[in-house]
Amino acid sequence: MRMRAAIRLIACAGLLLTVVAHADAPALPGDIIADLEQLQRQLQQGEHDRVAEHARSQAQRLEGGNAADRWAGALYRQLAAGAEADMGRSESAADQLRQARRVQEAPSRQRDRWLREEARLRLAAGHTEEAVALWLDWHERHDGSTDDRWRLARALAELERWEDAAGWVERALADDPAPDERRQMLAASVFQHAGRGEQALARLEAALGAEAPPEAWRRAASLAQGAGDAQRAAAIWEAGWRLGVLNEEADLRQRIELHLIAGTPARAAEHLEAALVDEALPDTLDNRRLLARAWEQARDRERALAAWREVAQRSEEGADWRRLGLLAHAWGRAELAREAMRQAQRRGVEIDPRWLSTR
User: 20 to 30 A Cα–Cα from 264, which one of 111, 232, 257, 317?
Assistant: First the structure.
């Protein structure tokens, strides 16, 4: 809809007042101006097929004439493009503008306007590579709007030209430092693919909020973790959890894992213990092992030893009893260490006899 409006603005509203009377263009005879006016009215009244057919016919008739004829033919092409665009025929409309641009009698400023509109139509028709080439040509002579820069960045991203896209995102952000969520996400994606992790993360964080999708939160935390900033990743995840955006069982487990990685194991253990009590996570052996590991990393000796004993008793695996024994020995709990090593030996683990002595 925006594409059609843009074409109509150029093809209709400003046609007679701005284009026909252009000082750098050949003067047109009165009958041609009257015909163009009539076509403009018909186009505004929705007579798209009639306008398109008549405008194309006139353009073909005039293209071999003198300078004024060729200029008039270009204007007929413009009207035909407007009619085609209003009917959703983006490729046909773009072809009309391309032919109009080839008319040397058309002022350069007008040809550049047609170039810009053709680029938009090519994109709407799915011809992204051609649209990008046209836009880059136009931008060599014009700064364009912020919307133009975002549009070009998105098109370059579609072509996976990530470095080029990143450059245009930076130019867009210079004038639009706080874009909407959709553009923030585009910027994050482009920067990430271009290998600019910190810039990608900054964009993602700027877009995070209660309305942001869970995937945005997960992606931001993943980027922070990938950059080696586990604390930042944990903080992002924690914020998403508290806002209720990250609320699945897997999210809760990842919340716990991130606290372990970030160096806050006591918090991880507390979250996990509460989740097991509330049955937010299943009381499985894997989750019990995770709880024991968290209390161990937190160096909460009593809770860690109790948690590892629980694991060993549930699993009946010698390796778990041996781990409990080693931990108990390290923390000066000799009696518990011997008991655990005996249990490990009974389950087939080879134990140095000195571990079993009462020394």
Answer: 317
